[in-house]
């Protein structure tokens, strides 16, 4: 499997239907088209422009400890950060850029949700409980949009056995990698079909 195809497959497994959830939104949050002019950052570094080395350095400085890298994904122990309800952080790279940084979150996460609402305001769009900062929220997805195609997505799945996640996503980069992988798949399929054309 080529690297771009493997990379897109990994992020698809990590983020699931993040990019597809908004059109079917069942509850619209109060108007908040984007976090006005604000750039999405993690560990005080701009995720849209950060290199892998810059991000890794900022993560270490904040107290995150790398647990190793496997292919495009690196896992961090973030217990020392003291973020309520947060378990682990998995970062997916595309070349020398950060494509996604995803926290796995405890099922009980009211404090974290209130912190997110206080910092970023109401989600730009949502599918789930109307009040994101309510004491309890059911399954659903909540998204904040930022400049340069960046998104912050809080997702609580229907099944309790599946992890709740908070994902910092470069949606434009993800779409580009996914498109490259699809293009290669299409070319591979065409070449395979051509090679078989003499047997029928």
Question: What does it look like?
Answer:
This protein has 200 residues and is α+β, with helices and mostly antiparallel strands. The protein has one domain. It has four helices and ten strands; from the N terminus they run αββαββββαββββα. The strands form two sheets. It has an eight-stranded antiparallel β-sheet with strand order 3-4-5-6-10-9-8-7, sandwiched between helices. The chain has a two-stranded antiparallel sheet with strand order 1-2. A hairpin with a 2-residue loop joins β5 and β6. α1 packs across α4. The protein is globular, with a radius of gyration of 18 Å. The two termini are 28 Å apart. About 10% of the residues have low confidence.
Write the layout of secondary structure elements.
Elements lengths: L2 H13 L25 E2 L2 E2 L5 H11 L2 E6 L2 E5 L8 E9 L2 E9 L4 H11 L4 E3 L12 E7 L3 E7 L7 E7 H26 L4
Antiparallel strand pairs: 1-2, 3-4, 4-5, 5-6, 6-10, 7-8, 8-9, 9-10
């Amino acid at each position: 499997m080529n690297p771009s195809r493997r990379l897109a497959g990994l992020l698809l497994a990590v983020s699931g239907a993040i990019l597809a959830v908004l059109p079917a939104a069942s509850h619209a949050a109060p108007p908040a088209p984007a976090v006005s002019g604000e750039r999405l950052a993690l560990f005080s570094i701009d995720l849209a422009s950060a290199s892998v080395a810059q991000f890794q350095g900022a993560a270490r400085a904040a107290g995150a400890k790398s647990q190793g890298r496997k292919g495009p994904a690196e896992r961090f122990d973030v217990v020392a950060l003291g973020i309520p309800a947060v378990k682990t952080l998995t970062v997916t790279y595309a070349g020398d850029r950060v494509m996604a940084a995803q926290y796995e979150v405890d099922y009980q996460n009211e404090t974290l949700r209130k912190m997110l609402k206080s910092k970023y305001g109401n989600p730009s769009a949502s599918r789930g409980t109307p009040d994101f900062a309510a004491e309890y929220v059911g399954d659903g997805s909540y998204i904040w949009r930022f400049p340069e195609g960046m998104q912050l997505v809080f997702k609580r799945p229907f099944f309790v056995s599946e992890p709740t996640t908070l994902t910092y996503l470069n949606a434009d980069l993800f779409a580009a990698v996914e498109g490259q992988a699809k293009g290669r798949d299409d070319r591979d399929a065409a070449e395979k079909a051509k090679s078989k054309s003499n047997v029928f």
